[in-house]
UniProtKB/TrEMBL annotation:
Its EC number is 2.7.1.107. It is an enzyme of class 2 (transferase). One of its GO terms (cellular component) is membrane. It comes from Cannabis sativa. This is Diacylglycerol kinase. Phosphorylates the second messenger diacylglycerol (DAG) to generate phosphatidic acid (PA), another important signaling molecule. PA is required for plant development and responses to abiotic stress and pathogen attack. May be involved in the accumulation of PA during cold stress. One of its GO terms (molecular function) is ATP-dependent diacylglycerol kinase activity. The lineage of its organism: Eukaryota, Viridiplantae, Streptophyta, Embryophyta, Tracheophyta. It comes from the Eukaryota.
Amino acid sequence: MADSDTNNNFLKEFKIPNYILLPNEPKEHISAEDEPKCPVIVFINSKSGGQLGGDLLVFDLGEEGPDKILRRIYVNLAQLQREGDKFATHIQENLRLIVAGGDGTAGWLLGVVSDLKLSHPPAIATVPLGTGNNLPFAFGWGKKNPGTDENAVKSFLAQVMEAKEMKIDSWHIMMRMRAPKEGSCDPIAPLELPHSLHAFHRVSDTDELNKEGCHTFRGGFWNYFSMGMDAQVSYAFHSERKLHPEKFKNQLINQSTYAKIVGSQGWFFASLFHHSSRNIAQLAKVSIMKKQGSWVELTIPQSIRSIVCLNLPSFSGGLNPWGTPNSKKLRDRDLTAPYVDDGLIEVVGFRDAWHGLVLLAPNGHGTRLAQAHRIRFEFHKGAADHTFMRIDGEPWKQPLPVNDDTVVVEISHLGQVNMLATQDCKSRSFRDPSTPSSSHGDDEDDDGNGDDSVSGEEYRKFGAADTFKIPDGVDISHLS
């Protein structure tokens, strides 16, 4: 009985009365001492397990999208506050969200919160249930499923209560290409864009980004955009898994298969097996813009075969391609630590698979190319007719111009949302000096890379509400 009372008292700190969340429920009288210290709403996919019990209200994302759920809840909260319900105000000001799933699921919810433009946007904690789990790892929630038994759930909730809020930048991405004169173009064969780039919804005719005679796609990401070598390997892996899902039953087999693909495609000896037409400098003209300034062309070393635009210090399962530049890099090139809320995205290059392995070493990092508020890739007719791209773990094969047309990919800062971070958080905040290693990296060795030397307004909604939704039949808990 004592254990039961203790358990109930603990869960009371998180529980929200039904009338707050379900508009048709009868209103309850709540005393001040019954106000939950940390009211939470849990979003989970029923296929992921997550036996959180009846003491907390859990929404199944397989049944209803978070945009509809949150819009309904906040409309109800606003109505209750107009009626003088002070408890509703307490809930709105202290509400926290928990999302259980992979990076795709977490990014979906983050995008919805960003879109809703709430006066008191709730901070979000992520339960790692997917494949990559870069988002949870970056904020201290780990890489593996923490468990769904009672003790594991209570332990996670205790972390949520103690977690601190940290803002995270979001990034808008636009891709524009000439519409084909003949044949089907929905999507443009063989183009299968990722969900985060709205493969199933091009921009409308009234969208300011729409351009006559072109197909324009837009979307957003939280972690990274990459192009070239790493995206090609990821595309091969995902294609193989789609064809033979029975071969990908556990993490060890998946990692082994991934390594075999890297070797079979010759990326460890890229200078021998891959023509220079695949190198980034031959594929695209790259331009960047700082927070204040104009477009400046970025010089990409000729040997770079992969480029990563990184928002979080977590890539490919927790690796940090940017590292922490030392004081010399800060002085000579104005390169800072990879803060997740400074409105800058880190641009890193890799020569081959061996270069990628340096990330496993202490202080290892790729070739630091730039930090930018906006970055633009312009692809013109060249020796290659396609390349590979990836957004937050979702790769695709991108056709390149075969005539005088241009394919443009542009990334720009969009806004911010609030994340919940544990004491083991890997991310660093520009605003909060108490975050780990928030200095400018004076203790780190120089990078020693021979080719490391290189010469106002929010766009619009993130696109997650209504139009940005996971298609029917997709198991969102495994999006990575």
